[in-house]
Amino acid sequence: MPTRVYKAEESNSVHKTCSSAMETQQKTGSVFFNNYKIFRNGGDGFNWWVILCLGLLNAVLLIVAVVLGINCAKVKEGSLHISNPAVTQLFSELDYLQSNHSDVIEAEEEAKKALESAINNHKEVKVKIEQLKTVNDGYQKQMQALQMEKANLKSNISTLEGSCGGCLPGWALFNSSCYFFSYTESSTVKKNWHQSREDCGSRGSDLVVIDDQEEQKFVSSKIQNMKTSDQWWQNGFWIGITDIETEDRWVWINNVTEVEQRYWMDGEPNDQGTNGEDCGVAVSSIFNPWKTRYDGRCNWHNLHWICEMPLTS
């Protein structure tokens, strides 16, 4: 912009010069006219040489004034030609700035709209994140439940694998049968003969039937350390033999009549008491493992019991 300021100042200077030249031209003409009047009237006492010099000076000044007037006209015309493009350029730049200002305002409006859209998108994303978090929490709970179920299934598989081709947990294997001694489950729970048989039935078995000497020895050795009382007879276990149907005719629960008498303790069975003793009991004897039975009161005595069932394949 300094160039335009300079041109404006230059134009003002030219106009001032031209105005001075015009004033000089007018004054020169006036002087010439006045001198002419003096020359015509006889000089009013001045020498005609003086008048002649003044006339020549007037002529020179007139010529100079004319030349300056012509140059001023040219300069004026040039200044008009120069100032018009400058003004046009100024207006062009002003239009450009106004156009840019409109573009900036439009860009600002678009930026505001973009910002509002981004804020709305952010809110939607936040809502979706909360929804996904809720879904994820549900999946986490389901996963925990499935993990617990998986652990239970593994435990069941281990139990089944352990019992497949063998005895259930807590049961002892001997030959081709599995035996459950109630003492191993609870040393304090005792039942009468009928209740003990019902418990065996709930386990898919029945009270033990001792068929031979090996089984007799096995049972006696197993219950040797299963004692809960100082009274020997209270440490007995119910077995599956009784003479309830016919007194002194001892029959196993598989309907096999016991003919071997050597497994009874000395003096047993004695059917002692007014209510009778009609159910067989097995005890442990460190002196003679063959004499380990006595007869007890089926409903009155509460003892441990022994269950037996065939080995599963």
UniProtKB/TrEMBL annotation:
Q: Which residues form the signal peptide?
A: none
Record's SMART domains?
A: CLECT
Source domain of life is Eukaryota
Would the keyword Phosphoprotein be found if you checked this record's keyword annotation? no
Q: Does the keyword Coiled coil apply?
A: yes
Q: Which UniProt keywords apply?
A: Coiled coil, Lectin, Membrane, Transmembrane, Transmembrane helix
Q: Where are the transmembrane segments?
A: 46-70
Q: Which CDD domains match?
A: CLECT_DC-SIGN_like
Which GO terms fall under molecular function for this chain's record? carbohydrate binding
Would you tell me the protein name for this molecule? C-type lectin domain-containing protein
Span of domain C-type lectin: 174-291
Matching entries from InterPro entries are given as: C-type_lectin-like (IPR001304), C-type_lectin-like/link_sf (IPR016186), C-type_lectin/snaclec_domain (IPR050111), CD209-like_CTLD (IPR033989), CTDL_fold (IPR016187)
- Record-linked Pfam families: Lectin_C (PF00059)
Task: Report the coiled-coil segments.
Answer: 105-163
The organism named in the record is Oreochromis aureus (Israeli tilapia)
